[in-house]
Design goal:
Length: 210
């Protein structure tokens, strides 16, 4: 397994982490929990399965998975492997191995969702059917060439991730290619304009801990 930290406490970002993970074909990230953190990840390429003690679901490119704190989960790569980007808030690098004998009453209930395929130039909540959340709020957007969307952190930290395509970021005055992440602190705002058709963006807002 290859694991690259894109953003997190070690890079000066306090409320959220972003980690790129590549699983080789037929390898498995065994079942574990993150006791404190809300967690989500998105498959960028490849295919596989996400699983908990009594459920397995197939994954393919552009699938997202939402995992509440304490929910046991694992990831298995298929024949082509899996490349995924994951986010946590609050950042928690601890992956506690799941022990069915000790943690049989651990909560269940990850959610899956598919990123929108049609360009709409609007942000959409990625997991609209969540019953509750505290810290991590993922959105997604698909743009065609020339379309733009505003990115506003408000009272949160915000990561804008270019999953596919390329954009021009007003705050940088530069083009950004996939896979890249732009961090905005509270109250910061910028405009993002697509440089290619079918550009896919993630907007991951992290609410400050109280």
């Amino acid at each position: 397994m290859q694991r690259v930290v894109i953003l997190g406490p070690e890079t000066g970002v306090s409320q959220i982490s972003a980690i790129l993970v590549r699983l080789p074909p037929h390898h498995e990230f065994s079942m574990h929990t993150h006791p404190r953190a809300e967690d989500c990840f998105f498959v960028i390429s490849g295919e596989g399965e996400v699983f908990e003690p009594d459920r397995r679901l197939s994954l393919s490119a552009s699938t997202g998975v939402w995992i509440p704190p304490g929910v046991p989960h694992g990831l298995a790569a298929g024949a082509s492997g899996v490349l995924e980007i994951g986010f946590q808030s609050p950042p928690d690098p601890t992956a506690v191995p799941y022990d069915a004998a000790a943690d049989g009453n651990a909560p269940r209930g990850f959610l899956t969702a598919q990123l929108p395929g049609e360009a709409d130039a609007r942000w959409y909540p990625t997991f609209p059917h969540r019953t509750a959340w505290q810290h991590l709020d993922p959105y997604s957007c698909t743009l065609n060439h020339g379309q733009s969307v505003s990115a506003e952190a408000a009272d949160c930290e915000l990561l804008i991730v270019v999953v596919r395509g390329a954009v021009e970021v007003q705050a940088l005055g530069a083009n950004v290619e996939a896979i890249a992440a732009l961090h905005l602190g509270p109250t910061e705002i910028t405009e993002v304009r697509a440089r290619r058709d079918s550009t896919v963006l993630l907007g991951i807002r992290a609410r400050p801990m109280t």
